[in-house]
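Chapter review: from sequence to fold.
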Amino acid sequence: MSTIMSATTQAFLLATLSAFFNGSFAACAKLTKSPIDPILFTFYNSIGVLFSSFLVTPLLPFLSELPDDSIYRAGAANWTFTYLGVIAASLYIAAAVLSFATVKFIGLGIGQGVWGGAAILVSFLWGVLVLGDTVDSPGIAALSLATLLLGIAGIALNDVVGDRIFGTKRGSGDEMMPFDNKKQDPSDIELNESDVVDESTSNYFTLGILCALGVGLFGGSILVPMSFVDVNNSGLDFVPSFGIGCIFASTIVMIGYYGFFQRMSPLGLMTLDGFLLGALSGIIWNAGNICSIFAITGIGYATAYPILQCALFFAGLWGIFVFKEVTDKNHILAFFCSAFVLFGGAVLLSINTNA
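The token string follows.
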């Protein structure tokens, strides 16, 4: 017990803080002077992750002296490289790359809803079936997961929910198409091409859903490898190996993407502001990653990582209040109602799960 608050309370606050960082790091991409290639941005992001990963090493001697039951304790005073950090980082890079493909095929709203829901289920199952977390009541666990999924879907599709429940006057200029990457008006398609168009749209949708499920699978598993390292590499000691793995995996992806698919050099696409903002996004993301590590120690993977998916709420706040991506009042109302449902599910999950 802490003299100020219990370790469990601290862990929940850290899980929430992790969600804030994870919902904020992508905002850096919107601040660049010109649009930046997502693969290149991911590479910049990994540089920020690597840099911030080694900033924690001076803290290890102090944290290693903390009591064994402290959620902040480091396994050893000096970190040792572990290949499991590379595996964890590769899961993160894979999730990032697939998220770009998801947005391209089915748009951000549907994509976020699918991968957020998948990540909640995957992380919960990892915690309960593999990592030793327990639930007091399977029925309450199912209800809390369903509530989380409902909240995620409502936030991601706030425009659809707002129109259906509260009603929105059409022609306001604030409608979002489910396939917003498809700019063609259906009325412009000739009748004899309809079958081809329907098949193409169906294929895009199926591929997008599969990519989104991949994001959820990889994203919900990122810190699972940390649970299999020895005590000298657990906790904050795991972070430097993760940073090394990040730059390794993103470099491989960038070489493959530009070398085999684009067949061009990325050097001409590089800009100073893109690099700085990309690296900043990596630092912000890694801050959330570190908060997750501490939170997992206190409340378990099955609780901490589903709470992380509340990141969608904080990302939505950036979109509403900073970037003005949603301006319709009914859509905003639907967003906050869904957020209330999301947090209700998180609370229900937390009181029913034990590390």
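Two observations follow directly from the output. DSSP finds 13 helices and two strands in the chain. Residues 170-197 have pLDDT under 50 and may be disordered.
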